[in-house]
């Protein structure tokens, strides 16, 4: 859910488009999925004897007044960072405002470049992450792209062996599935950075933001759409998130670029994790998304089902849809090649 003054914010989604940096050694299945138009891809984490099997789907949003709009969401998949077979990154970037697509792609490209060249990455991943986010935000401010009312949210997962290092600016989400007996539970690895959060609400209020519903009613924290942020004497920028990259006007009222960082140690009970934009989670709870993923063996089928359900729910509730992007990463035991194919050991 992005800026109110820009693009913010089918059962059978259209073909995905752009945004990935598929580097490193990928091992795709030979056939492409009929809906996602993608091969199912696999990368090994040899240090801990498991594989990541993943798929991506992006769905262009529908806007009645802008038929020929572009998808402002982008994603990043970079395997074997620094030629290390145990280090991989997955990210989702949700652009907003007039130049949102440029911002999301700028961040996408620069994050890979910075992490790939950072000699301290494995010594202190958390510090490297924070430095990268802030450096890119500074570069965005100094670039030729107008960030007055445009920017991007960003959420990334850096896999280092059996540990996930996560960084988040905004309201996209990472959800991990945890097997608990006969149940599969959904665990959000971040709380959305919106005014629904008391700590974020109080922080932006101290910076002078007015926090009002989109129709400029009284301050409220009810409903599904968080109240938006406005300057003291104007009706802009109207951001629903409290952290992002770019958005120089929103920075004046407390929207910051400092990412929240989280560390998760994988266990045998972790089945998969999902990285997706708020276009997915606006009407689908994390619990539902995890249930839908668990219902499919092939993550491409799950991507298509979730994108289709999200799209349908948007149109049932509003006269538009947001852009949708989803990456599903399954965590599987080691596979070994047999006669040019893959079989489970």
Automatic annotation (TrEMBL):
GO terms for molecular function: metal ion binding; protein serine/threonine phosphatase activity. Its cofactor is Mn(2+); Mg(2+). Pfam families: PP2C (PF00481). Residues 53-331 form the PPM-type phosphatase domain. Keywords: Hydrolase, Magnesium, Manganese, Metal-binding, Protein phosphatase. Its EC number is 3.1.3.16. It catalyses: O-phospho-L-threonyl-[protein] + H2O = L-threonyl-[protein] + phosphate; O-phospho-L-seryl-[protein] + H2O = L-seryl-[protein] + phosphate. It comes from the Eukaryota. InterPro entries: PP2C (IPR015655), PP2C_BS (IPR000222), PPM-type-like_dom_sf (IPR036457), PPM-type_phosphatase-like_dom (IPR001932). Coiled coil: none annotated. Belongs to the PP2C family. This is protein-serine/threonine phosphatase. It comes from Gossypium mustelinum. The lineage of its organism: Eukaryota, Viridiplantae, Streptophyta, Embryophyta, Tracheophyta.
